[in-house]
Design goal:
This protein is of the alpha/beta class and 243 residues long. The chain has a single domain, classed as Spore Coat Polysaccharide Biosynthesis Protein SpsA, Chain A. Helices cover 38% and strands 17% of the residues. It is built from eight helices and seven strands. The chain has a seven-stranded mixed β-sheet, sandwiched between helices.
Length: 243
């Protein structure tokens, strides 16, 4: 019997990449035996016509869905997506988090699902284990990201994980149903560490697989200085929450 996975793709002004991303994901279904794919695009009313491109592709892909809403940050977008899948596709076995800008290569999907097949329920595409890298980054950005992640790991109490902020993930739905979304601390990129922290507390079986993360070739990165500050502050809050 086939298992089912749904890919959640948050978008804001991704009209130049969303079609390539959707087609690349669906192409991987042919090599992932016993898995059925669906995709949910969570669009924050992109003014560049991202949603219109998705609607055109829905004529070709019957398992492609679109959820629109106001722009409230990455965390809120993922929560809307999670809740939609749990309500409308309750037979889904696991959910992917992926960026829509082509920085997360769909060629790793089989590695994620192979790990899910062996019992892991929180699988992370890691830049900071052997085989993982960020070749397009400057040395300054690499150092900032690496040491920021070290702070998050140790202060946040997640030392067993090397990449706490990766946005390329596969999460088992039974685990996700145990997450209290109202207790996740942030709406932005720091949402990822809050989700991971709570999942570990719920007994998640975590596995990291190496990925090569590439910078987006189209559009503009949405990660800013405020996001970095938010990540460090969130890690500190998680430490104090422990006490």
């Amino acid at each position: 019997m086939s298992k089912k996975t749904c890919f959640i793709l948050p978008t804001y002004n991704e009209a130049t990449t969303i079609e390539i991303m959707i087609r690349s994901i669906m192409d991987q279904e042919t090599i992932c035996l016993n898995w059925q794919f669906s995709i949910l695009v969570v669009d924050d009313y992109s003014p560049d016509g991202t949603a219109d491109r998705v609607r055109q592709l829905q004529k070709e892909y019957k398992q492609l869905f679109l959820l629109e809403g106001k722009k409230e940050g990455l965390g809120k977008a993922y929560i809307r997506g999670f809740q939609w899948v749990l309500q409308h596709r309750p037979d889904t076995d696991c959910i992917f988090e992926m960026d829509s800008d082509l920085s997360h290569h769909p060629t790793y999907i089989k590695d994620f699902l192979d790990a899910a097949d062996t019992g892991y329920n929180f699988i992370i595409g890691s830049r900071y284990i052997k085989g993982g890298s960020c070749p397009d980054w400057t040395w300054y950005r690499k150092m900032l990201s690496y040491w920021g992640n070290q702070y998050i790991r140790f202060i946040g109490g997640m030392t067993q994980v090397h990449d706490c902020t990766s946005g390329y993930r596969c999460i088992g739905v039974p685990l996700l149903t145990q997450i209290d979304f109202s207790k996740l601390l942030t709406r932005g990129y720091a949402f990822q560490m809050s989700l991971l922290h709570q999942a570990i507390q719920k007994g998640a079986r975590v596995k990291e697989i190496p990925i090569v993360f590439t910078d987006r070739k189209e559009g503009k990165s949405k990660l800013g200085k405020n996001d970095i500050k938010e990540c460090l502050l969130t890690a500190t809050k998680l430490r104090w929450r422990k006490y």
